[in-house]
């Protein structure tokens, strides 16, 4: 597979075409961004860590029957993925209250959410990713009713797999965001799963081990991502 021109540069990743129109190269850069790009910083090793973290999680999900765009790791900070037609809808599941939920509803951080909640956001930085619902998504054509039902089903299925995976490694999966796309008429998980797009706390101490370390200036951002990975059994120097 030959890497061709850059198609798109996001806040932390870039997408390149390949000689096969059905496949893209996803490059994880060292750039870190929060608050819709208002706070940015380059963090050494971040591209490598998130690329290998994402590969590990995507492989676990595929093994559990969740269709994903991930094909294989190509280099320390690049992976080969299927070309998906992405849907501009972010799907968020929360197991424990944190972040925007606490601000919006005034609930206490750390409160267990039973059953876990499910929220949709429109992927639009200029509008600060506003919360939407299935009716709005359908009416404005961001996703069909069938797509939305499948995205919800898969997002909860991911929770079943990952909650246990993190728990077994001494961590709590507090919440996470997924993005989906379509290929061959099928909904598949796209984008990435890394500590940038989820919240992970230590099971005993509830120490924050995700991008909140960057958002809240808690320090040791990448060192902590690496600790999460090591607990899961990821070798970040494997490539
Ligand atoms: P929130 O508490 O800010 O709504 O975020 C919930 C979870 O989803 C948290 O793990 C961060 C993740 N997320 C993103 O990574 N990007 C986004 O644009 C949104 C809305 C959430
Ligand atoms: N991922 C978004 C950004 O980079 C939101 C966030 O993580 O705070 O701005």
Q: How would you portray this structure in words?
A:
This protein has helices at 46-63, 99-105, 134-139, 145-168, 212-215, 221-232, and strands at 3-9, 13-18, 23-28, 31-34, 39-42, 70-75, 78-82, 85-96, 112-122, 131-132, 171-183, 186-189, 198-202. The radius of gyration is 17 Å and the shape is globular. It starts with a strand and ends in a 7-residue tail after the last helix. It has 2 domains: 3-82, 2-Layer Sandwich (Phosphorylase Kinase, domain 1); 85-220, 2-Layer Sandwich (D-amino Acid Aminotransferase, Chain A, domain 1), CATH 3.30.470. The model has no long low-confidence stretch (mean pLDDT 98). β4 and β5 form a beta hairpin. The strands form 3 sheets. Strands 8, 9, 10, 11, 12 and 13 form a 6-stranded antiparallel β-sheet that branches. Strands 1-2-3-7-6 form a 5-stranded antiparallel β-sheet. The protein is an alpha+beta fold. The chain has 6 helices and 13 strands. Bound molecules: thymidine-5'-phosphate (TMP) and aspartic acid (ASP). Thymidine-5'-phosphate binds at residues 90, 92, 99-101, 121, 129, 175-177, 197-199.
């Amino acid at each position: 597979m030959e890497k061709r021109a850059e198609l798109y540069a996001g806040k932390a990743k870039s997408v390149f075409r390949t000689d096969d129109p059905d496949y893209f190269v996803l490059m994880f850069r060292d750039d870190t961004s929060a608050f819709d790009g208002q706070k940015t910083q380059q963090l050494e090793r971040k591209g490598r860590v998130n690329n290998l973290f994402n590969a590990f999680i995507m492989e676990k999900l595929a093994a559990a029957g969740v269709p994903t765009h991930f094909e294989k790791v190509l280099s320390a900070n690049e992976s080969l993925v299927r070309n998906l037609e992405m849907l501009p809808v972010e799907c968020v599941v929360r197991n424990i209250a944190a972040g925007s939920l606490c601000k919006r509803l005034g609930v206490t951080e750390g409160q267990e959410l039973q059953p876990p909640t499910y929220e949709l956001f429109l992927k639009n930085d200029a509008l600060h990713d506003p919360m939407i619902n299935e009716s709005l998504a359908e009416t404005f054509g961001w996703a069909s009713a069938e797509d939305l039902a499948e995205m919800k089903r898969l997002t909860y299925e991911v929770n079943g797999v990952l909650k246990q995976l993190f728990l077994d490694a001494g961590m709590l999966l507090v919440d996470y965001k997924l993005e989906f796309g379509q290929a061959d008429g099928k909904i598949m998980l796209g984008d990435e799963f890394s500590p940038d797009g989820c919240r992970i706390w230590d099971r005993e101490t509830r120490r924050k081990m995700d991008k909140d370390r960057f958002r809240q200036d808690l320090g040791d951002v990448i060192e902590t991502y690496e600790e999460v990975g090591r607990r899961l059994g990821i070798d970040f120097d494997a490539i």
